[in-house]
Amino acid sequence: MNSEITNAVTAARNRAQYDECAKRLLGQKSILAHILVNTVDEFKGMNPKDVIPYIEGEPQVGVVPIEPGLTNASDMAGHIGGFNSENAEINEGTVRFDIVFYVRMRDGISQIIVNIEAQKNKPVTYKILNRAIFYVSRLISSQKERDFWHSDYDDIKRVFSIWICMNMDMNSMSYIHLMKEDIVNEYDWEGNIDLLNIVLLGVTNEVPKREERYELHRLISTLLSNEIEAEEKLNMIELEYQIPVSEELREEVNLMCNLSEGIEERAAEKTLRETNKKVITNMHRKGYTLEQIAEIVEIKPEEVGKIIEEESMSV
Asked: At what angle do helices 29-39 and 3-26 cross, to 10 degrees?
């Protein structure tokens, strides 16, 4: 395998690891609590640490399939037992929710289902709201025979699909939900109009200043930044947001910083190689010897000859 393919595969693997690390960081209950306080009406105004106990079980990170028929899981008796996170290798290549979990409401009885999706950039091949509508619809439809049975539609749980889109031009937050409009006379139709909820969160590269309206943006931007050192991230998280820095959180932050540095280094190396190729080719055309070129670009003459040969064959 030539070096370019090797580098591309390695970079892709590290990017995938970086993305997985980002999901695991966002999937920490202490981070999820801050997201819930800023996006779910019932928890607004609460201290995030008081919200953590309402998050039930362990959030499912990158293991629950989205496709119809694959989201529900069954126990040995054939009854639905929760989200399908088993035998992931059988459905290799299947699209999965980034993070999905149940949250108990403050009444101690009702639950909601929350989905967090992290996007590196605003998608260009499709409209992000369309995808969010599909995801929130799947979170509703997949409840049948898992959270409600037969025609017990009154047992459908509210769902929230929260999309975090990085590298945006401005920090923003939009809340999208159903609304009723009476066209001919006003009639009070029975049902829960608040079942479907979408939150779109746009986050810039620059960590915003400390302002109440940008509190969540600042946390996420700090957490996922490629430019802030691990120790500085952990200090900000602990001091500003009173989030205890557990050993697990520390390891995830350190891993993310190491991965982002590796990706940047590989990108810089690739740029340098491409620049060297252009310089070597131009100097060769102007009549410089292999030894002269090698001395200037600081590589061996035989490597210069190999590059010249490869470039001439690609023309």
From this structure: 70
